[in-house]
Amino acid sequence: MNATRQGIYVRMIAMAIAIMGFIHIAATFTPLINGGLEVLSVAKQQAMTYMSLMCGMLLIVCGLLVAMLHNKVKEHPFLHRPYMLIYGALSIDGILAVAFMPHNPFAWMVLILVGGLDILVTYSIYALSNH
Q1: Among residues 72, 66, 106, 74, which one has the least CA distance to residue 90?
Q2: What CA–CA distances, in Å, run from 96 to 9, 76, 79, 107, 117?
Q3: How far is CA 109 from CA 36, 67, 69, 112, 121, in A?
Q4: What 8-state DSSP symbol labels residue 40?
Q5: 130 has a pLDDT exceeding 70
Q6: pLDDT for 7 beyond 80
Q7: Can you give 55-68 as a three-state secondary structure string?
Q8: What is the pLDDT of residues 75-116, one digit of tens each?
Q9: How many CB atoms lie within 10 A of CB 114?
Q10: What was the pLDDT predicted at 129?
Q11: What confidence tier does 13 reach under pLDDT thresholds 50, 70, 90?
């Protein structure tokens, strides 16, 4: 796979992850509108809403950072460590999404997208080390 095609795939998957973040944020408000969280105390409702919104923001921010920085990492070696930190955060989010919500298809979609992104990055690191 050439570098241009790989860069396109990485950006497409990263944007899909960011879109999943927007979906996550929109889905946060569905139980609030339908009254599905009424069984929780007000403090627990607020905590759950905050955690759900921050999880969605993590997907959005990390997805957009990967999409924007993918080509810059090759030009600027100092970005390697922060870039890998972003992949680590996404990987942990994908694994924990499935661990805590195994019956949620969106959790599995996030895990698959993040796994695909990890495979592409691992392949690119391996390809660069062999040249």
Answers
A1: 66
A2: 24, 31, 26, 9, 17
A3: 24, 18, 23, 5, 18
A4: S
A5: no
A6: yes
A7: HHHHHHHHHHHHHH
A8: 888 888 888 899 999 999 999 999 999 999 999 999 999 999
A9: 26
A10: 60
A11: very high
* Token pair listed for 115: 């796994």
Q: Residue 59: which residues within 8 A CB-CB, separation 6 or more?
A: 17, 18, 20, 21, 24, 90, 93, 110
Buried b (16+ CB within 10 A) or exposed e, 25-54: beebeebeeeeeeeeeeeeeeeeebeebee
DSSP letters along 82-94, please? HHHHHHHHHHHHH
Model confidence, pTM: 0.85
Q: How buried is 75 (Cβ within 10 angstroms: 0-12 exposed, 13-18 middle, 19+ buried)?
A: exposed
**Mutual orientation of helices 3-34 and 105-129 as an angle, nearest 10°?**
160
